[in-house]
Amino acid sequence: MEKFEVHILGCGSALPTTRHFPTSQIVNVRDKLFMIDCGEGAQLQFRKSHLKFSRLNHIFISHLHGDHCFGLLGLISTLNLLGRTAELHIHSPKGLEALLTPMLDFFNRQMTYEVLFHEFDTKAAIQIYEDRSLTVTTIPLRHRMPCCGFLFAEKQSPNHILREMVDFYQVPVYELNRIKNGADYVTPEGKIIPNGLLTTPSAPPRSYAYCSDTLPLPSIVEQIRGIDLLFHEATFASEDAPRAKETFHTTAVQAAEIARSAGVKKLLIGHFSARYEDESVLLQEASAIFPDTLLAKETLCVSV
After folding, report:
1. Of 46, 154, 188, 211, which sits most exposed with the smallest number of CB within 10 A?
2. Residue 22 in 3-state DSSP?
3. Among residues of the chain, what percentage have pLDDT more than 70?
4. Which of 67, 121, 240, 278 is catalytic?
């Protein structure tokens, strides 16, 4: 099966701690790297995770709070020092280009590559990226400023050819692409060979959703229904639910309830408040409602 992995570079929230870096992740799909958010220290954790900068071409920023984007300037500068030539695409809510461009002009006057900004509306689910194997769609969230999560969805791969059956029916090579995509084969004599005799189905497409920072939103349930892996912020424990509501964040219990309602296969919680010396209380609360829950930590790699 082709690679589809999520690497945690940072899973803390706004206040720095000695335990966690601010929010950042890498989604590795078939060795194409996609960064989600870029808090301080993201490039250091990128190195620790033994990932290759050359494979990173798209960065998705959920919102313009510092703990989700303060690492961008340093990362862009490092790529410049490394002599990068490929374009770097940054997808974000409106405002990032205006904030970042003056700093890039000051600190990186001789850029070896181009940084391209793509702004998106946070009020509706919009497809913002597509290639041959993957789409990325925004997930509207509710935070103290415009904010979106992201849904990474594999496309269905073509069927697998059964070589022995293709040889048995003497199927011409030029017919194979049609057959991979579900077509039957018609012999020169007019006999129809059903596609099911010539192929086996490919693996079901996989999906990953990232939801941070937000109040718990039942409105996202349909968009993420049945996905393989959900990352949902769980900034606070239940005893701090009033603080979660005040700051437009989610408790571990609320994250688990979203996962259960959506019927996702696995839940990964993160974006932990600095007030917790031991996040096991968050894991216990979430697991009581949604047993297949994981606790995020730096350099953790989860296969989708």
Report:
1. 188
2. coil
3. 100
4. 67
